[in-house]
Please model this.
Amino acid sequence: MVDYDSQTPMMRQLLDIKKKHPDSILMTRMGDFYEMFFDDAKTAARELDITLTSRGGKHRQVPLAGIPYHAIDSYIAKLVKKGYKVTICEQMEDPKKAVGLVKRAVVRTITPGSVVESNMLDSKSNNYIISIFRDGDYFGISLADVSTGSFLTTSFKGRGKFFAEMSRFSPKECVMPKTLQLDKVFVDEIKKQGVYVNYLDDDLFRADTARDALEKHFRTKYLEGFGIKDMPLSIKSSGALVRYLSDTQMKELSHLNRIHTYSTDDYMILDRQTQRNLEICANISDGSEKGTLFELFDHAKTPMGARTVKSWLLHPLLDAGKISGRHDAVAELSANVILRKDIRDHLDNVYDIERILSRIVCGSANARDLIAMKMSMLEIPHIKKLLSSVRSSMLSDISGIDSLADAAGCIQESIADEPPATMRDGGVIKDGHNAELDNLRSVTRDGKSWIAKIEDDERKRTGINSLRVRFNKVFGYYIEVTKANLDRVPSDYIRKQTTVNGERFITADLKEKESLILGAEEKIKALELNLFVEVLTKLMEHLDKMKDAAFKIGVLDALSCFSDVAAQNNYVKPVVNDSDTIRISDGRHPTVELISDSGRFVPNSTYLDGSCDMMAVITGPNMAGKSTYMRQVALIVLMAQAGSFVPASSASVGIVDRIFTRVGAHDDLSTGQSTFMVEMNETANILNNATSKSLVILDEIGRGTSTYDGLSIAWSVAEYILLKIGAKTLFATHYHVMNRLKDNLSGVKNYHVSVREDGDNIIFLRKIEEGGVDRSYGVEVARLAGLPSEVVDRAKAMQSMFESEDGSGDVAFPVDEDTKKKIDELGSAVDAPSKGRDGSMQKKLFG
Ligand SMILES: Nc1ncnc2c1ncn2[C@@H]1O[C@H](COP(=O)(O)OP(=O)(O)OP(=O)(O)O)[C@@H](O)[C@H]1O
Ligand SMILES: [Mg+2]
Model:
């Protein structure tokens, strides 16, 4: 606990400021450093690996850590990346001129969800902050990306949908009403995704306060224009969000000038498990992008394009017209190879204009940002020209992009072509842009020759050839005369300092020139800064046009990327319609085919519909390719609805509203759920939410428990889907009795993945064929995996023994001499197998 009263006035000033920012690391400008005190100093020292010192007298030692002012950006980036908030406190007056305590004030808080600096951002991902309002099971959520100006809101019912949206947008930070803290399970679930959580006053989420905040932010009395007038939950979440952002940024965020309302019903729902299981943006093994669908599609030329592609893959559409619109544009770019190449070549020179724009609005853009902006804008007329004769409606819409000649011209005439990264040393504004600046610059240029001339003149006047005019920070310009020549110094020289070798003097003439030169340098710095701000302000006039252009570039790039990926991988244009049928000929798994030896991936066809072919029960050996096949179907549907071409020889997709996947088994120890509990939770989610328009992938459900229980569950789940839901379903299982489902219910077809037996070995043919099989070849696959041969042989012996059983379920553990010997050899105890064998139990259960 810090004793406030015993602190110096300055420390009390800082403690007062800190009180208003308790959850943030406070960095205070002191001379050439930003200093942190007390616990902030300790945290910073630990996290940034900088020295922890202390300051103050014996009785009031205060922990202190400091960083040089010019290096602050990289330190802030480190802290924010580690999930901290940082508040910057500046001196509000020149300390030299201040009377008493220097005035200080907070100018900005940098938070994980509101950064705009490129060193804190991933160029291929949006950086969202989410605001959550919840009323029972109803949600209003708003998402803003301050770095790109995107601002969205929606409202809906259901916790599952909420977490699906959380996972789609992966926000870095969230704000919610304080009272929501009480639902610890809910908050923990959010925190588990690595989201920084802020609790705001419940008042900020009140209908009237929220509406006021929005009206103030959008400068309108009429929220109708944004379509959220009748979305009370969205008004609450959005209002609180703009308040939070303006409080932390302390700037007007005029690029968040439009809020876009969307409905979760506009997009295919992909719950969290499905996003994970299909490895859309993160793989299952380590959460990285390796091997994901996004990695496959990571061919965009610009950051806007990459972000658009990612968002399209995570938001497959449901409207056949919109989807076909994308397909048509991709087709046009695919058919016209030269057009595509030319467009992509130009896109290659376009920088992250969306984020530069945000930095312009937030006042943190530097001169190099503006040059990057200009270079990018200069590409637009070329792109426009290339698009002048396109036919597809999306491309011709993009061809209407503003060429931004005014904005480019504004930068061109004011900013130096190769400016320095900071404003510190000047040189940012072009010669010829401002007459006063040109004058001052000529003074500093001429100054050098004035000084040289003074040196020359004084040498002649005094006859001291070694006389020099020099400069240092303490005296400015001075004349240096060595000891031996001191007797020749004229009387008008004013002595300033004696050194070992001689003495330093100044003269009235020297000081006069000096004040001209130094004054000019100071003036240049101030003037350049003013002129730079002027350019930023001028550019703001073009904000809407530039934002629109950045958006169109993103879409064009995404379409060209889809078309490039399609060409490289031999994809076809799918047909998408509102029918009830999914028909894929020779489909391939988009990412597995890339890691298979070339040409070795075996294509497979699929037919599913809402009547006779609703459910495919897929059996076949371990390792045969069941899981790969089922995911391939899901991915092809997803890609088609995202607007991409697909890996198949032809495909026709009746639009799917949701893809569900129940795949594999994993513990969720962090929420205290067992493998089986996780599996059942996910299955429950499917049964409660799937519709007849959904696609369900069930990969071996029920395997996390005993065979009896598992099989019973698998059977009843399948029945329920067929009879009550009518969702198109792919169901892989090693419970071979599931093959009998089709005899009991209509709508089921059996398939298997074929293999060929070759002595003790099996050869995987990877071909899906009609009809079920009743062997899993588990032991053979175990051999392939390298289990010790003793174990494999023993397993084979056990297998044939179980298979010769009569099905009574009472299997005696066979311990003849031979076996005993083998067990001893293995050196480990073997538990008696649980009762029965698959076949017999299955017979018992289902007759
Ligand atoms: N169509 C295919 N063409 C070529 N290789 C394939 C094909 N399908 C799958 N594979 C390869 O076979 C491996 C095993 O496939 P998969 O995991 O789908 O088998 P599975 O039948 O689900 O096995 P298990 O029953 O053990 O879960 C994959 O990792 C892949 O390398
Ligand atoms: Mg599998």
Summary: The longest strand covers residues 748-758.
